[in-house]
């Protein structure tokens, strides 16, 4: 039962759009029509008005653009479409405009411009995704390989770019491209691509976010910053998604795919997916609390000061109060090691934040649970992440808070490559993190050593108490040397291919 719950929960999260706790996948519509309804209309302040039982609704076009009407269609207007062979251009126009009107009603914001929408097959999206990863530079590949190796998610004999491309190709249900200002809805049906109105609603809202709040300009240069800013971007989007689906189940008939339309999730890397998708779980709860305390105005205000860390959405009471501390890592490496230059204004370091560190410590339990079929407890128990998912009424599917990573205050991972890496492909890294207290730092360091031991690491007694080595004959894929030191509220992890190379990567003196 635990294994099935885990599999279902992970698939639910990695589909990236429209999948939140407590939402039923049973909302469907007749393949040819959607019926008119009479229901509440939500205004910009979040209040509702209910027409009388015999009230009539005028579907005449208004004299000027108004909330709840777009492109000739009201939010509750009847439409006629034939889904048996996909949607033709006029049908797609109808569905998109009515969905825009519905997003306006749900979110209380007016669209000032439309966004082009295409429906594409999974195969087409996979091909496009593969093409987008083809031009990653060698240094870019080294950077990603080191990042995800440090997370114990992509081994030394694997290519992180291939894993990232596969994850994206198999999981996305739809996306909005700010650079192209267009939306693509991804359908599993290659013969007659289908529309999922819930996915469409979220992507339309992402377009609205970009137009209204200029979200494409937010700094998302590291995984931690990406997840932090997505706390409001995806948190708001998924909360709108949630409220939109509630209206579909209660008031509206909505275009929904069949069960066969959902991605299986079988080929995706769960650890990477869960690292990246923390804001899809904690973000909607963060936004819901803002909405309940101050309406949509309170949510809108956050775009001026978005979350600075995943800590601030895992623990919403710390938003605007507990700011992360910038972490510096001095380059004390010898000439044998260099930091790969990324170019294109990309940063040459990484940061994973509280969400990433939690997932790193949790992931081995998932691996063991999948292997044995029994709930595992390696460092952080499998069941810990999934506890909220057992409650069908919660927006927060996953629990990313744990004593081992609570107290995070900042982290910085600097990848290194051997100067002759063209011949050796050797890499290393220095990963420093700061914590609210010395005890928090010690607790994380102890948990990290448990993670090393899970991967076969043994303490190297003649190198001091802080040096560990995963043997070359280990089948873990992470055969390296590690030095883990704690100084007051700071933990420094140094990785190198051998024990003798640790000081060459980062001098311990």
What can you see in these coordinates?
The chain is α+β, with helices and mostly antiparallel strands and 509 residues long. It has 2 domains: 2-318, no CATH class; 337-351 and 406-505. The chain contains 15 helices and 16 strands. It has helices at residues 2-14, 89-107, 122-133, 138-150, 160-171, 197-213, 223-250, 270-276, 278-302, 311-314, 353-372, 382-386, 421-424, 438-454, 502-505; strands at 33-34, 41-42, 48-49, 69-70, 73-74, 79-80, 117-121, 174-177, 182-187, 337-338, 408-418, 427-435, 458-459, 467-469, 481-487, 490-496. It has a 7-stranded antiparallel sheet with strand order 10-11-12-16-15-14-13. A 3-stranded mixed sheet has the order 7-9-8. A two-stranded antiparallel sheet has the order 1-6. Strand 8 (174-177) and strand 9 (182-187) form a beta hairpin. Helix 8 (270-276) packs antiparallel against helix 11. The longest helix has 28 residues, at 223-250. The model is unreliable at 1-9 and 12-54 (pLDDT under 50).
Protein topology:
Elements: H1 2-14, E1 33-34, E2 41-42, E3 48-49, E4 69-70, E5 73-74, E6 79-80, H2 89-107, E7 117-121, H3 122-133, H4 138-150, H5 160-171, E8 174-177, E9 182-187, H6 197-213, H7 223-250, H8 270-276, H9 278-302, H10 311-314, E10 337-338, H11 353-372, H12 382-386, E11 408-418, H13 421-424, E12 427-435, H14 438-454, E13 458-459, E14 467-469, E15 481-487, E16 490-496, H15 502-505
Parallel strand pairs: 7-9
Antiparallel strand pairs: 1-6, 2-3, 4-5, 8-9, 10-11, 11-12, 12-16, 13-14, 14-15, 15-16
Helix pairs in contact: 2-6, 3-5, 6-7, 7-9, 7-11, 8-11
């Amino acid at each position: 039962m635990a294994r099935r719950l885990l599999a279902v929960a992970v698939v639910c999260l990695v589909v990236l759009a429209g999948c939140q706790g407590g939402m039923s996948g049973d909302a469907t519509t007749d393949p040819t029509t959607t019926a008119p309804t009479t229901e509440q209309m939500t205004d910009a302040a979040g209040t509702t008005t209910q027409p009388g039982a015999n009230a009539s609704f005028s579907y005449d076009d208004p004299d000027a653009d108004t909330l709840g009407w777009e492109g000739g269609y009201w939010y509750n207007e009847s439409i006629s479409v034939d889904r048996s062979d996909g949607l033709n251009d006029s049908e797609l126009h109808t569905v998109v405009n009515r969905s825009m009107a519905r997003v306006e009603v749900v979110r209380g914001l007016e669209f000032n411009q439309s966004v082009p929408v295409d429906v594409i097959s999974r195969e087409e999206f996979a091909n496009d995704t593969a093409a987008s990863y083809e031009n990653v530079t060698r240094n870019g590949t080294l950077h990603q390989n080191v990042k995800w190796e440090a997370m114990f998610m992509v081994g030394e004999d694997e290519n992180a770019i291939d894993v990232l491309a596969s994850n994206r190709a198999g999981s996305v249900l739809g996306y909005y491209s700010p650079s192209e200002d267009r939306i693509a809805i991804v359908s599993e049906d290659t013969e007659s691509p289908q529309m999922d109105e819930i996915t469409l609603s979220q992507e339309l809202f992402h377009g609205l976010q970009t137009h209204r709040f200029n979200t494409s300009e937010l700094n998302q240069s590291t995984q931690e910053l990406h997840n932090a800013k997505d706390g409001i971007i995806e948190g708001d989007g998924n909360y709108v998604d949630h409220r939109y689906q509630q209206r579909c189940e209660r008031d509206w008939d909505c275009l929904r795919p069949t069960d066969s339309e959902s991605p299986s999730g079988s080929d995706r890397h769960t650890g990477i997916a869960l690292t990246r998708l923390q804001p899809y779980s904690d973000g909607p709860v963060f936004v819901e609390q803002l909405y309940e305390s101050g309406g949509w105005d309170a949510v809108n205000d956050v775009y001026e000061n978005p979350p600075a860390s995943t800590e601030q959405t895992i623990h919403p009471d710390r938003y605007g109060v507990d700011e992360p501390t910038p972490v510096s890592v001095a380059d004390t490496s010898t000439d044998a090691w260099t930091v790969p230059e990324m170019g294109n204004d990309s940063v040459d370091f990484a940061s994973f934040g509280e969400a990433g560190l939690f997932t790193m410590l949790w992931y081995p339990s998932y691996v063991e649970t999948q292997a044995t079929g029994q709930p595992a407890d390696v460092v952080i128990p499998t069941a810990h992440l999934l506890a909220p998912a057992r409650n069908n009424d919660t927006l927060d599917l996953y629990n990313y808070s744990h004593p081992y990573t609570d107290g995070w205050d900042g982290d910085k991972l600097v990848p290194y490559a051997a100067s002759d890496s063209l011949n050796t492909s050797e890499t290393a890294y220095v990963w420093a993190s700061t914590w609210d207290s010395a005890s928090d730092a010690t607790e994380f360091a102890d948990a990290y050593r448990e993670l090393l031991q899970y991967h076969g690491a043994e303490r190297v007694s003649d190198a001091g108490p802080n040096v560990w080595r995963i043997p070359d004959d280990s089948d873990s894929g992470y055969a390296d040397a590690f030095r883990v030191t704690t100084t007051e509220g700071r933990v420094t992890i140094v990785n190198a291919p051998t024990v003798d190379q640790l000081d060459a990567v980062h001098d311990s003196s």
